[in-house]
Amino acid sequence: MELKFILESLLFSAQKPMSVKELRDVFATAAAAEEAEEAAQALKKVKDDDVVAALEMLASEHEAAARSYRLVCVAGSWQFVTQPEFSPWLKAFVGVKVRPSRLSQPALETLAIIAYRQPVTRAEVEQIRGVNIDGTLQTLLERSLVESVGRAEVVGRPQIYSTTPIFLEYFGLRGLEDLPAADELRRIVIEKPPEPLTVDPGLATAAPEQLMLEKTEVGGGAAETPQS
Amino acid sequence: MVLTLPTEPPRLKVFQFMAEYKVQFEVFEGPLDLLLYLIRKEEVDIYEVNLTTLATQFIAHIDLMREFDLEIAGEFLVMASTLMYIKSRELLPVDQQVLVEGEDEGEDPRWELIRQLVEYKKFKDAAAQLQVREAAQENIFPRLPGKIEFVAETPAIPSGVSIFELLNAVNVVLQRLAKVESASREIYEDKWTVSEKIEHVLAVLNSRPSVRFDELFENASSRTEVICTFLALLELIRLKQLACTQPEPFDEIEICRAPAVAAPAPPSGELPFVLENPAPANTTPPHSV
Lengths: 228, 289
Description:
The structure holds two protein chains of two kinds.
Chain A: H1 3-13, E1 18-19, H2 20-32, H3 38-42, H4 48-65, E2 69-74, E3 77-82, H5 87-94, H6 105-117, E4 120-121, H7 122-129, H8 134-142, E5 146-151, E6 159-163, H9 165-171, H10 182-185, H11 213-227
Antiparallel strand pairs in A: 1-3, 2-3, 4-6, 5-6
Chain B: H1 9-17, H2 31-42, H3 51-67, H4 74-91, H5 109-137, H6 163-183, H7 194-207, E1 210-212, H8 213-216, H9 223-238, E2 242-245, E3 254-257, H10 271-275, H11 279-287
Antiparallel strand pairs in B: 1-3, 2-3
């Protein structure tokens, strides 16, 4: 019996999203049963990677089949969800989902900065946004989208903040690496210009090359490879 | 790697003093937002923006806010002064510009501002993408089946009925009867015996596979009759002729023939077999109460 179909059957009847560990526990329990069949025994010690690979294959098969539902992984747990285009009928049938009110623009901006730069202090967020974030941070904390995860080892030992699993659930993200354009926005290393920028007669400011991240990164990587 | 604190001391001070002010001019969430808006209006790349023009527009906008009698947050004023500083520097010919010395070495204010703008812009875009996701999530429904009602491998049949449950059941019957009896004052002769009732119970069970506990007492007219029937029932259970089951806790107790584990009892309930047992000896004392 194929692993992915066993997983499909489990997720089909699951009461809640299932993490890979929970799924593996099921395999262990099934194999431990007295009348366990050979097939169940064989999967007793199935590996995490195999389960994830099978789940991903299952998800892409569902995607390819273009069914009304799909398999998704949110905050590390897998579950079947309906495709968004069927929401008019589902809302009529199941009822409108109970969700807190949508986040305001400032709250979203603050949340985005914390999400990409975590763990981060309030001052760092304020520096990027250029405004005070007292209120919005409070909202995010109250909604458990972010939490304080300790204190930074700098003067004043300010609190540092990170996003919570609720954040991933709220936005339907598999993990932090699933954030849109995550690699670009995480901790951008911006070097100071080697020399003060010269002013051209038109008074326009020349583009600092250091901000062209993709180019510098690619260039640096390419330069190193031939030598090694 | 780690972002350091802003290198502009005045800005930090303003944060502390102006914490209570909140300005929301149109949709601008702060000076950077306003600057991005102005740059977008110019339709130029952030890197190519003319900061001098931008400074003029920014200050014009602040004047406008003042005209509308809006409170202007400290952040806007800090930005205005930064822009004015940049503008004033640019007014000098290149060779006469003071190379920023000492503490500020290499910190061109234009660079700092543009770096900040670019960074802010990226996060603003990221926030917009999050907003799209937020809205999309509202339309996605998870599959949440109801709890499956299978009892995992609990053999339902031998869910035996304890003596207390039987007593409870008979108490209910007796209480019901008590109401009827208290109404009438007639005295009945004790015309029921346990053995008779054993016959009766077995006869009932001959006609059908099982009977509800209540049914056995349906026609009972007196307390004595109920007790006789109950004792008959206990006796038959003791002899493993009958079994009581209860499909679920607190459910109706059901009485059926015991599974044929016991002696190969004659199928059609031959009474002599039962009555020959020392049953009467046991049943009589309580009966006489």
